[in-house]
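hey m, so remember when u said the C-alpha cells were messed up on ur end? i reran from scratch. heres the input so u can diff it against urs
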Amino acid sequence: MKRILLFIDSLGAGGAQRQLVGLAVMLKRRGYAVKVVTYYDHPFYKYILDDDGCEYECLNVNSKLCLPRLVGCIKRFRADVIVSYQTDPNALACLAAAMTGVKLIVSERNTHLSIGLKDKIIFQLYRLADRVVPNSYSEGDFICSNFKFLKHKVTVISNFVDLKLFTPKEPAICRPRRILVVASVKASKNTKRFIRAVSLAKERGADIDVTWYGVNPADNDLPTNVRYAEDCVKMINDLGLTNCMRLLPKRQDIQAAYRETDIFCLPSLYEGTPNVICEAMASALPVAASRVCDNAHYVKDGSNGMLFSPDDIDGMADVLVKMSAMPDDELQLWGRRSREFAESLCSSETFVNKYIKIIESL
C-alpha cells in the first residue's frame, strides 16, 4: 500500500482541518500508511488522530521557513503521495514535491471571487501538482475557466460528514425557536449583518434564541479578527440582545449542539462546501443560509430550508421570522429531508473512495 503524507498548516478548529483529519483516519482504516504534518501547533483536532493511532508531526516553524523541514519529513517517512490542504501548505507542498519527486494532490479549499497576484502565483505553482481537488463545484468551475492549463488535473470532491456522529435530534421542537450558527466570528462569516437581522426579526415578533459557536482562541494572533469579535459583542449589547443571543467559543463536541437546536443558520458572504451545513443536515435540521457558491446545492429553498442574500439584512430577518413561525410538523419534515440529502450527498464512503481512486491512479 502507498504511504500517504497529509500536510496542512495546523490542526486548529477549522473546516479544512476537520476534513484532512477525517481523510487521514479513513485512509489508515483502509490500510494505507498515513502521517499528518503541520507547521503550527494548534491541536484542536489532534484527539481524532490519537484515537485512531495516526502518526502526527508538528514542524514548529513559521511557514516561510518550513520547506527544508517538510522535505526532510517527506524523505524520512518515505512518502509516495502528498495530500495538501489550504493555500500556503499547497504552495509549500508543490515545491517539496518537485524537490523529492513525490506525487502530489493539492486540495483547493478557497472560493475565489476574483484573481489577485498571489492567486496567479499559486495556480502557476499547481503545474507542479499531479491533481487539483477543489471541494466545491463553484471553485472547480472557476479554476477550469480561468486556468485552463489545469483543467485536465481538476476533480471536485465535496466535503464529507460523519453520518454516524451527526445524527437526528429528538423530534421535540421548542419555543422560543433555538437557532444555531457554527462559524468563526469574522467579517467573511457576516456576523454583524446577522446580528442586525436578529434584532430586526425580534422587532417583527420572531420568538427566537440564537447561539453562535465561533470564538476561536487561535484568532488572538489576528488583531483584525479580535477587533471584529469585540465589535460584535458590543453590537449585541447595544441592540439589547443579550438575553436572546450569545457568541461562544468553538466546541469539540459540536454534534451535541446540533441536537440541542431547532434551526441552523449560516449567513456567510462566501463558502466552499460548507461543512457545518452538511453537519446540520445530517443532524436533521432545517437550514437557513446565504445564497452563495455551493449552498444552493445542499439547501433546497422551500424543501429543507430557505436561502437569502448575505448583504440583505431585511431579507435575512424575513427568513428568520418565517422559519421561526413555521408549525412544528413542517420544520420536522424539512429536517427529515435534510437528513436524506446529507445521506445522498455527504457520505464519508463517497469522499474517501474518490481520493483513493486518484491516489491509486498516480
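this time it looks ok to me. The CA atoms of residues 37 and 57 lie 5 Å apart. if urs says something different then somethings off w ur setup not the seq
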